[in-house]
Design brief:
Length: 383
Amino acid sequence: MRTARAEPERLRAFIGREARAAGFDMVAFTTPDAAPSAPARLAEFLSEGRHGSMEWMAETAMRRARPRALWPDVRSIVMLGMNYGPEEDPLPVLEQRDRAAISVYARNRDYHDLIKGRLKQVAGKLAAKAGEDVKVFVDTAPVMEKPLAAAAGLGWQGKHTNLVSRELGSWLFLGSIFTTVEIAPDRPETDHCGSCRACLDICPTEAFPAPYQLDARRCISYLTIEHKGPIPHEFRAKMGNRIYGCDDCLAVCPWNKFARTASEAKLQAREDLKAPALADLLDLDDRAFRAFFSGSPVKRIGRDRFVRNVLIAAGNSDARDLIPRCERLARDEAPLVRGAAVWALSRLLDPAAFDALARRLRPIEGDPEVQAEWDRAEQEVLA
């Protein structure tokens, strides 16, 4: 049996207090139909194939484009943001080629678990206070959080397509609470990017066909996290030592000067994930990988895909002390790992040594894709 509904303005203030008590930095309100252009933009993105192999985006497009298709009873949406700004600039590690660059958001606990727990805490108190139903969503659900957050006034979608806040910059985790209670919406934020192109110009793989557009197939975050097969050759050298995600377009946003640091938000990075040695990461078997990344979002991609990424970084490192590890991985059980090891060795070994290794290993290679890696690498090394 529902309790009497709380007065709207008092309810807004109550939700704001509870959200901040739970660790959120921003809270604002919007309606399910507040982002009318989002469905068309999503349809265009999907029709051009810019989602790559993320078939789940196409499969959930109807629910993703229209919140009421996800939950017909929703009347209001509470959008919440949590800043995870790093304590130091994450870009200098890109010059340390024997070290790995892991995206800032992945250097702590899996944020899906962190945010969802706090959302449930706020939503539970909202439900009890208002006598209404609630549902919580993080980005694993088919919700277009960024357009809804912009409609609620938390910020605007910048030219890098991520949300930007005047108060907190580009380092934002987002979550939403859908509810059957009617709450007056906030005003949308206006775009403050101006003529700035910093996020577009720094992208190493030119993943932005135009401002406010992203081709995920060219994005290092997609390639290192979502993409399951071999990394396309055209992007391997451009990846540098980025082994999980890419922070370049976020890190250069000038609005970050207003962001709080992660330590203030109690989201400090694990020290061993700030710039781990490639050598140590190449030694991880499946059991060691799962133990090292326990509680981390990195664990989601699995050991083979992760080591694939580290081998690409090794090939870009010029660190010849990594050669024995790469040679061992050229005999790994996983074809995905063996293929990446071939590429890394083609970059680290001199031509004669690589040719000698190819003569030993290519004849016993049974996977066609790995054989193709040997063929291509030999052509390039011996050209």
